[in-house]
Structure formats: C-alpha cells, structure tokens
Amino acid sequence: MTDVLFVFGTRPEAIKLAPVIERLRCNSAFRVKVCVTAQHREMLDQVLGIFGIVPDIDLDIMKENQDLFDITTRSLKGIREAIRSCRPEWLFVQGDTTTTFAGALAAFYEKVKIAHVEAGLRSFNRHSPFPEETNRVLTSHLADLHFAPTETARDNLIAERISGESVFVVGNTSIDALFLCLKKLEGKTQDDFPALKSVNFDNKIILVTGHRRESFGRPFEEICHALKAVSREKGIEIVYPVHLNPNVRRPVFDILQGITNVHLIEPLDYASFVWLMNKSYMILTDSGGVQEEAPSLGRPVLVMRDVTERLEGVKAGTAVLVGTDRDRIINEVLKLLGSRSEYDKMAMSVNPYGDGKTSGRIESIVSGLSKNAQ
Question: Is the confidence at residue 229, as pLDDT, over 90?
C-alpha cells in the first residue's frame, strides 16, 4: 500500500485537490491522509464540508495580522511534524500558495517524494502575482512529479530544465471539482442562497471578484470607479462578494456602497459561488481559478490583471486581459453588453483547461509509478 499525504491551506487548494483525494481514497492501493495548515481558516472549512473532507492533521496556523514570514515558518514546522508522524511515500501539494512552497520544502528536507498538482504555470513576473509566481517556481524545482494542466505549462517546465519524464499533461482538477459541485447543485434555486436574495436574476448579472496584493491602493480604486460607471447601464446587476482583506474592502465600500444595483456581499462558500457563476452573464476577476472554471460554463471572463499565468484562455478567446485601467474595463464590459457577436465569440470558445477527468489521470499515473517501484 502506498501512503500519501495531501497538504494544503487555502480554499482554492482544497477545491482543486478534493477530486484527487476522493479518487485515491476510493483506491485500496492507497492510504491517504490530509494535513491542512488552515492558512485561510473560514474559507477553507467551507470547502472541506462541501466535499466531505475531514483533515487528519489540522495545524491551524492562522493568526491575526499574520504575514508571509509567519505563514511560512509556522507551516514549515507543522508540516515537518505531520510528515514524521505519517512517513508518506508521496506528499501532494497544489498550485502556488505559501503553504504549497512550505509543504514542498518540508518534504524535500524529509526526503519524501513531492507531487505538484497544477505545475508549470508562469506569468514570468516574480512580483505579479506576488508571492505566488515565486512560490510555484520554487516548488517546481523541489518536486519529483509534475502534473501540468496544459502543454504550455509543460513547455514552461521543460524550459527550466525540469526532466520531461517527470512531467504529465493532465488538465486542471478545478474542472473536475466544478462538475462535482454542479451535480450537488442540481435543483437549487435562488431561495437556497440567502446571500443572493436581493439580486434580480431577470437582469444580466456581472459577477466581480478581486483580492490580489498587487492591486491594493490605486488599482483597486480604478476598478471600483469602473464598476460604478458600468452600474449606470440598464438591465444589469453587479454582484461583488468582497474579500475580507481590509485593503480590498476599504475602496470597494467607499466607492460602491449604496448603489441600488451593486450588491456588495460577504465571501460566498464554494457551492454558492459556483451557482452564481452559472447564473452570471460575464465575470470580472483577478482569480486564477475563475479563469479556468468560467469557460466550462460558457461565461466570458475579463481578467483584471496586467499579466496572467493562464494565457491559454486568452489565446483561446475565453478571457481578455483588461488590467486595472478604468477606461479599459468599462469599454470591454460595454462591448460584451452591447454586441451579441462579441459575447458569443467568448462564450462559445472551447475551454483549454480541462474536461473533468484530470483526477483519474493523476490516479493512474501515481498507481503506475507505485507499482513500478515495488
């Protein structure tokens, strides 16, 4: 039997690893344990409940006003103890968080093999997104097994002299998780989501999310002024689940609070957010995961960042980079609202990120490697 330890700390990591955990737990050849750092406590717990994941080890590192030094050091020491108690053959990490890097570094120090899910994404700007770009580069050079979502991600790894024999293009597990969640949501209506009771779903819904550190300050103000201008259009509703970070909440509430058709709500749990995405007309976001999920729902995405590590969506036509420039955001939103052909061009593009079968491919690859090692 192969012992596997999954380590994660944030909501996106939990979402994207949940399908893999489920697949390996259903395979009697694996003994699976889960360690969470709880880098994002409340948002993480929501996802664990949706997917029925009970952590074997909960480091609960979250402290008020913690910074990257705190997260890194507490995670590293806690994961060390988790590894020593489990002695796994493989440690799985996902994506690009500080927990991801700390998990990979701890496994390297303990001489445990590292599997990196969603490997090879690159913006080629170490400060955008920060610290995620550097986290994923460092994790790649520690990992033994790389599950790349696309050929582009694979090429990025090969260009960094990562052995091609350790890289597998499998798609993105976010699409697996999305499809699992959509099944759970069948039959749900607006009445099942109290946070959305004031939204008029007879209008076109513009869903907004934003949280990136590099947009704190003036860029977030520009985004909010753009949304305020767009709100004057008839027949639309802007729904903005506002991130808990005060650097986000301050400009959002200062500029947008009190506008009738702008709904500033608390962050949604994953299931509620998927339901809302599915009911939206378009999405404005700086989130990586939303760039992957929305195309599977046929929803155009305007990416409020200057660079993205997910250029496949831009090239496929499912997403447009609009940055944080007020006029650019306004113009692109109005284009999609005013032109059905422009809208359909994006909505009907093929999602380049996955088909919902990624976790099965990962299971097969790890199974094969485990058998060969015996």
Answer: yes
